[in-house]
Amino acid sequence: MSSNPFETAVILDGIRRWVEIESPTERPDQVNKLADLVASGYRDLPATVERIAGRDGCGDHLVTRSSWGQDAPGILVLSHLDTVHPMGFIERLPFKVDGDSAFGPGIYDMKGGAYLAHHAFRQVCADGARPPLGITQLYVSDEEIGSPTSRALIEAEGRKAKYVLVTEPARDGGKIVTGRKGVARFDVFIKGAPAHAGTRPEDGRSAIRELGNVIQALEAMNDLKRGVTVNVGVVRGGTKPNVIAEEAYAEVDMRVPTMADADELVPRILGITSRTEGVSVKISGELNRPPYEKSNAGAALYEHAKGLAAELGFELVDVFTGGGSDGNFTAPHTATLDGLGVDGKGAHTHYEQLYISSIEPRARLLHRLYQTLR
Q: Is the distance from CB of 116 to CB of 363 less than 8 angstroms?
């Protein structure tokens, strides 16, 4: 029996059990099956588990709270149980170990990190001495689709907390995240007039041609120096090649590094109008994740974590990233540290993997954060 409470093989076995329950966001029954397993892991601990019923086609959310420290602002740990991989993907990407890599759907994003946070909490409970702050762990079911049913819960818990730790995966080489771009999504609806493309083209007003104008206007907003990206990722339109297209549609993703950029660009996109008489352009959408800008409190939290990592024997480097997370919802008002999960690569791919060598040091870092934040 090992005396090391952070023995890699034991933690990896726990991660495997979570990975082997597939949990695509659009399968609430499967997400809830995983939530059952996660909740059962708190039964023997000094903690309460609250289960919030899923809605709008999403699974349940779990809120676990330590029995101590709940009368004052404490530590909120944010994790998600859903993955982007469809049901049956585990047949293509079964859990397996090859050298320093362990593979499986969602193992890197983010079941590995979610499990590390749970394991570190178990160890805090076993330590005997209670840490200064209470610990609340929130597991949501819908992060991969923008957290539509959990956002209000995340924001409410975030406002109550003094610190927020997010178990999203580490970035290349184990980097931690101290800033993320804000994410906006838009739907573009264009309505023209149909006509026979051969005999009466002059009677038609092409929605597809107008969509081309809109796409050019959107593409012109890209500014890589500023860190602004606008991507038209989905387009649909028309019915037949010999019919002037009556309707066209597009879905747009925008990423912005600061709130000032969002305040400028969101109205600009919503204000795009038709350049063609007889064709209407209607754009709807909003900023669905605010930018996560590195605050003074967030910087101080990072410096504290960096010091703990040095004591544990590794260097913790921070990075700003373009991907959004639930940390975007808490960073505007609470010191937030993201990317505390496992190191690895291939999120959302057929080769998704965590690096086994990252398990113990990162579990120990979470444990030390639980012990030392005050």
A: yes
Task: Tell me how far CA of residue 48 lies from CA of 44, 145, 159, in angstroms.
Answer: 10, 28, 20
For the segment 67-83, the average pLDDT, to the nearest whole number, is: 97
The answer to whether the CB of 341 falls within 8 A of the CB of 167 is yes
Phi/psi at 197 (5° precision): -70, -20
The pLDDT tens digits of the residues spanning 150-175 come to: 999 999 999 999 999 999 999 989 99
The H helix count followed by the E strand count for the chain is 10, 16
Owner of token pair 């610190």: 163
Pairing, β 280-289 against β 335-337:
unpaired
Helix (H) or strand (E) holding 61: strand 61-66
Distance of alpha carbon 326 from the chain centroid: 5
At residue 73's C-alpha, the angle toward residues 259 and 144, to 5°, is 50
Q: For residue 106, how many C-alpha atoms fall within 13 Å in the half-sphere facing its CB?
A: 31
To the nearest 10 degrees (0 to 180), the angle between helices 8-19 and 359-372 is 90
**Gap between the Cα atoms of 292 and 318, Å rounded:** 14
- Is residue 342 within 8 A of residue 354, CB to CB? The reply is yes
CB 317 within 8 A of CB 175: yes
Q: 246-249 — which CB contacts under 8 Å span 24+ positions?
A: 246/191, 246/192, 246/193, 246/194, 246/207, 247/189, 247/190, 247/191, 247/192, 247/207, 248/188, 248/190, 248/192, 248/207, 248/208, 248/210, 248/211, 249/187, 249/188, 249/189, 249/190, 249/211
Rounded Cα distance, 55 and 152, in Å: 13
Q: Which one, of 304, 303, 268, 307, lies nearest residue 285 by Cα? A: 268
- State how far the Cα of 147 lies from the Cα of 115, in Å rounded to an integer: 20
Q: Are 56 and 115 in contact (CB under 8 A)?
A: no
Q: Who's near 351: CB < 8 A, 6+ residues apart? A: 93, 103, 345
Render pLDDT for 113-145 as a digit per residue (tens, 0 to 9): 999 999 999 999 999 889 999 999 999 999 999
